């Protein structure tokens, strides 16, 4: 089914924009502009502006469904679903469709942790092992002078390993939290350990959030889903949200299925994430906007449903850049915004909010490549609703010389991202004086440009490679993050 038809299946929920006399028609016009004039997250300086429709971008990146909720003047302005819950179906995404929030679970969970701090049940700066009964974080040379604390766990500055979690297939055995932390079967991630001095630098760790989850449960004696319901979800009115892993049968019909980068549905519809605080929330964009608005209202001293003004202010204060106590932070003063993204198997999502301006949005998708889609949506929303300092990255390109060009063109076998990955190759070609890159299914053919610092970037989706050269300036290989990619048949 073509994406343009999927968009026609969208179910719309429109609310008048707060503080404005805009009619439903004018809101409809705004949505039309947003979904027809999306731009890449990276733009080339001096190049003509490129526009994409949401339908085209969803089709290009094999994302069956998208849901958006927009905040304006501190209130939900509109929410709308696009596409379908499952590829090939006619089951439309609506504003009430559930998605996995992935790592957006972290700042929502941090809200409950901070509430427990306010109640005197936890402390941000006490060594974390004080609160752990059934498992202890091993001490080593890195913890001799600096402790791991809740403040450092929630701001990703505890020096821990284990960045994220792949989840567990529907037919797989699910480990306990203690097994996850120990890296013991059936856990599919490494044991948690401190790998650098706590407090020394920012290092993202979903494993650290899982330690926080255990501390919360063992301190209160309450199951984590019930704890989150009592401290955060119910007080805020997040009625379509639950930390349920696996998702209850009663809610399964409301949920969008996850899809891989080829648009194929994840086996069993989705993975299970026992790492509840780090990745276990099922929710809607509308409910995420309720959370964002509540944090801003608390910071402004207008609400105490969850946190006090003092604690909400600390939550939105940089601890170790770019993190506050849960959310990531950007800008300052009235232009301050807090945000967080998330990627679970088959899902990508994002929430951003400017608390002083009352502007922001939550976007959820049911595709592995959904981050490309939501970044383009964010660009369009920022332009339409005048979000300060929130715009596409501008780059200056250089033309590769003939020798570099010849060295770049060819086939590059890509390193496996997981043991179950299908072998794939990226192909760099030259067409009409432009460098093009393509990797069957997951990376559609697109122009890739060269920067002066030897970075190669696809402006449309942000895919990035780095040139590695020998002492004579010849390209020896490409680098994808920490992975080495060598051209075939060199």
UniProtKB/TrEMBL annotation:
Domain Beta-lactamase-related per the UniProt entry, residue ranges: 54-374
Domain of life: Bacteria
Classification via InterPro entries: AmpC-like, Beta-lactam-related, Beta-lactam/transpept-like
Cleaved signal peptide residues: 1-24
Alphabetized UniProt keyword annotations: Signal
Listed Pfam families: Beta-lactamase
Keyword Signal: yes
PANTHER family referenced in this protein's UniProt entry, alphabetically: D-ALANYL-D-ALANINE-CARBOXYPEPTIDASE/ENDOPEPTIDASE AMPH, PENICILLIN-BINDING PROTEIN 4
Protein name: Beta-lactamase family protein
